[in-house]
Write a structure and sequence with these properties.
GO terms for molecular function: kinase activity. The protein has 9 helices and 14 strands. With about 325 residues, it is α+β, with helices and mostly antiparallel strands. The chain has 2 domains: about 120 residues, Rossmann fold (3-Layer(aba) Sandwich), CATH 3.40.50.10330; about 190 residues, Tumour Suppressor Smad4, CATH 2.60.200.40. The strands form 2 sheets. Strands 5, 6, 7, 8, 9, 10, 11, 12, 13 and 14 form a 10-stranded antiparallel β-sheet that branches. The longest helix has 20 residues. About 40% of the residues are buried.
Length: about 325
């Protein structure tokens, strides 16, 4: 008998309206699964980054399908416990960005998305793998990701709120306002980027931003990632000042950037490359007080060093028909 485990983020159901929504979602799912003779369990994620351990325990208990009622951060946490274990993952969007749901073609309305999810089919997708040195820890740690991972100012944007509460106070407009402040005021730090292209060629540049993408769309930006490809889509901006950085961001958002490689001298604009591995680290002789942050799927996980590649593990993701 199939067994489904439904996780929800309790921080996203703090109001009576959201609690009522969760009850309706639970009733919809439970009725449909019961009609098919399937067992379903519903539980909150207990603490920050605890959902991975909860999910791993549920896999050991025999659950074969996991549905996440939450945002991309909650999906990221659950993913840590189920990657490579052959269990399916579905998403009901209840967060701020809901980038994964957007790429699956799910509506922002959770109830409509749940109805579509009940008819979804699993398709195995590629996962990225990020290895970092967490701040204050001597040992490195690795994480799986579905959306993107990288180093630079975009990670500082994610650091507006590692718990997500800041994204909900004032809504999306306050979150994007905070991002604009970072772009206009935070220092543009340069760092070393080394990557291996799908051709096998290794290249190295001094850059201001680097992000390895899994998905075709990240809100307005269309970097052209592919969940089924055996590589990652790397986007990067050469070393530049604030004006060049801002211009490159605008060019990226226009989605009209040419895809040819950097020339000599290199133009200041975003560049794209399909890669199997990349490493980000401070430039030689850089100030030890660097604030370079590293993120994956919107979670800030470390600083100053990141190794990013394609994971051996995969996950069956539920795609609506």
């Amino acid at each position: 008998m199939s067994r489904t485990f439904v996780f929800y983020n309790p921080m996203l159901v703090a109001t009576p309206k959201r609690q009522a929504l969760l009850k309706r979602l639970e009733a919809l799912l439970r009725d449909r699964f019961a009609a098919c003779g399937q067992e379903m369990t519903v539980a909150p994620t207990l603490l920050a980054f605890s959902a991975g351990s909860q999910a791993a325990e549920a896999v050991e208990a025999g659950y074969d399908t996991f549905i996440v009622c939450g945002g991309d951060g909650t999906v990221f946490q659950v993913l840590q416990g189920i990657a490579g274990k052959g269990v399916a993952l579905g998403v009901i969007p209840m967060g701020t960005g809901n980038v994964i749901a957007q790429n699956l073609g799910l509506p922002r309305d959770p109830e409509r998305a749940a109805a579509m999810l009940l008819k979804a089919k699993p398709r195995e997708v590629t996962l990225g793998r990020l290895t970092v040195h967490p701040v204050g820890h001597k040992r490195s740690r690795s994480w799986y990701f579905l959306i993107a991972a990288g180093m630079g100012l975009h990670a500082a944007l994610m650091n507006l709120s590692q718990t997500g509460q800041g994204k909900r106070i004032g809504g999306r407009s306050a979150y994007f306002a905070g991002g604009a402040r970072i772009l206009l005021k935070d220092p543009i730090e340069e760092f070393d980027l080394e990557f291996t292209a799908v051709s096998g060629e290794t290249r190295r540049y001094a850059v201001s931003e680097a992000i390895a993408v899994q998905l075709p769309h990240l809100n307005l930006w269309q970097p052209g990632g592919d969940l089924f490809a055996p590589h990652l889509r790397l986007a990067w901006i050469p070393r530049t000042g604030r004006a060049g950085f801002l211009m490159s961001v605008l060019k990226a958002l226009s989605n009209k950037v040419p895809m040819e490689g950097p020339g000599n001298p290199m133009k200041i604009r975003p560049y794209y490359e399909d890669v199997t591995r990349m490493v980000c680290r401070p430039l030689e002789g850089a100030d030890g007080r660097s604030r370079l942050l590293v993120e994956a799927d919107g979670e800030v996980l470390g600083a100053r060093y990141a190794e990013i590649g394609v994971a051996r593990e995969r996950v069956p993701l539920l795609f609506p028909e």
